[in-house]
Specification:
Elements: H1 2-5, H2 13-46, H3 52-78, H4 80-90, H5 93-103, H6 105-120, E1 128-130, E2 136-142, E3 146-150, E4 156-160, H7 161-164, E5 170-171, E6 179-187, H8 193-205, H9 216-220, E7 227-233, E8 238-246, H10 252-270
Antiparallel strand pairs: 1-2, 1-5, 2-3, 3-4, 6-8, 7-8
Length: about 280
């Protein structure tokens, strides 16, 4: 470093500026080189590993931050005018430490929480998750400070790592992407229950992304592919629920809409009556 400093006049503004540019460029080059080497190593090791992409992105972000910080520190502690100012600042080390500690509290907690997310793996990049407050979407990135979630409105939800690490996260895809979807239908009290269940089963079989989750024994025993049950009878209606297994949780909302529309049209066509609310008129 001393031989490099001999090429720059660090007592002039132009010399300091040129030196700073050189340090920044060198740090950028080393950052790119180290990230390339580390990522090649991780890709070779974790190609088939479930959380490989998450580790790769977090490592890339971490190395970028480390080399950026290193470049700033090199400039501060090698340029005489900056080094002198730092000396004055650190003369009040106790006060400075308290100020820096308070200011960096959130940053440090986010950094540690980010490391815990990568290590303990409650979710990964590409996972479909839902948070405590009902916010849901696809995990797009995990940085040193925050996690980025792409919502279904194509908006980015930026959540500090220290916040998301303390919430309960419903992960739809962490182990198995298939899900059980509950689909509810209400029919009139005088409706033919068997006909209604037959219509629901037939329309379910026409849906995309539906999978047959029966065991081999169920298939041999000729058990129904879809579990359709009468779960409640009220004063005005009968409540039927269809349990449908799907291969892709991202398609559930679309499937529900198509399914309900198709069943409603069949109910009307084949004479399955819908609930009629009873109203008591008081004079």
């Amino acid at each position: 470093m001393g031989s490099i400093l001999n090429y720059f006049n660090l007592n002039s503004t132009s010399g300091i500026a040129l030196y700073s540019v050189v340090v920044i460029v060198l740090c950028w080059v080393f950052s790119r080189l180290s990230r390339t080497l580390v990522i090649l190593f991780l890709k070779r090791r974790f190609t088939k590993e479930t959380f490989g992409e998450t580790r790769l992105k977090f490592t890339r972000n971490s190395l970028r931050f480390v080399f950026g910080l290193l470049g700033v520190l090199v400039i501060i502690f090698t340029v005489p005018v900056y080094k002198e100012q730092v000396g004055y600042i650190f003369s009040g080390a106790g006060i400075l430490a308290a100020i820096l500690g308070f200011a960096a509290k959130d940053a440090i907690s986010n950094l540690i929480a980010g490391l815990f997310i990568v290590l303990f793996r409650p979710f990964r990049i590409g996972d479909y998750i839902e948070l405590d407050k009902g916010q849901m979407g696809i995990v797009e990135d995990i940085t040193l400070r925050h996690t980025v979630i792409n919502t279904f409105e194509n908006k980015r939800l930026i959540i500090p790592n220290s916040v998301i690490s303390t919430e309960s996260v419903l992960n739809f895809t962490i182990q198995d992407s298939k899900i059980l979807s509950f689909n509810n239908f209400m029919i009139g009290l005088d409706s033919d229950i068997d006909l209604a269940k037959k219509i629901i089963s037939e329309e379910a079989s026409r849906l995309d992304f539906v999978i047959d989750n029966r065991t081999p024994k169920d298939v041999i025993d000729d058990s129904p592919e879809f579990d359709v049950r009468l779960i409640e009878v009220t004063d005005t209606a009968m409540h039927i629920r269809a349990y449908i297994w799907l291969s892709d949780p991202l398609e559930e909302f679309k499937m529900k809409s198509i399914f309900k529309e198709a069943v409603h049209k069949r109910f009307k066509k084949e004479g399955v009556s819908l609930p009629i609310p009873l109203r008591k008129i008081v004079r």
